[in-house]
Design a protein that fits this description.
With 116 residues, the protein is mainly beta. It is built from no helices and 11 strands.
C-alpha cells in the first residue's frame, strides 16, 4: 500500500524559503515508472500542479512557478521535498504530494498559512 504524508510548518511569516516534505511508504521513490508531484490548492480554488520529479530524478516545473520553487529527493529517507522561495501571504495554500504510476496516490495535504 503506497502512502504519502506531507509535513511542514502550519503557520509561517513571509520568508525567503519554506520547506515541505513528503514521506513515502510502501514503495521506493526510485521505483521505475513512478513520478512524484507537488500540487497546491489556494483557498476556494482548484488544484494547481507545481512540479514533478520522476523515478530517474528528472524534474518538470510549472513554468509560472519555476523561479519560485525547487524539488529534491532523499533516497535514503524515501522523501520528496518541495522548497518554496519568497513566500508571501498569497501563498497560503493546502499543499499535496502525489504519486503516479499505474495508479495515482495522494497524501492528505498540509495547510500552510503565511501571515505576518
Amino acid at each position: 500500500q503506497v502512502q504519502l504524508q506531507e509535513s511542514g510548518p502550519d503557520l509561517v511569516k513571509p520568508s525567503p524559503t519554506l520547506p515541505l516534505t513528503c514521506t513515502v511508504s510502501g514503495v521506493s521513490i526510485t521505483t521505475g515508472f513512478y513520478a512524484w508531484s507537488w500540487i497546491r490548492q489556494p483557498p476556494g480554488k482548484g488544484l494547481a500542479w507545481m512540479v514533478l520529479i520522476d523515478f530517474g530524478g528528472s524534474t518538470y516545473f510549472n513554468p509560472f512557478l519555476k523561479s519560485h520553487i525547487s524539488i529534491y529527493r532523499d533516497n535514503a529517507k524515501n522523501t520528496v521535498s518541495l522548497q518554496r522561495n519568497n513566500l508571501e501571504p498569497e501563498d497560503t495554500d493546502v499543499y499535496y504530494c502525489s504519486a503516479s504510476a499505474w495508479y495515482a496516490y495522494w497524501g492528505q495535504g498540509t495547510q500552510v498559512t503565511v501571515s505576518s
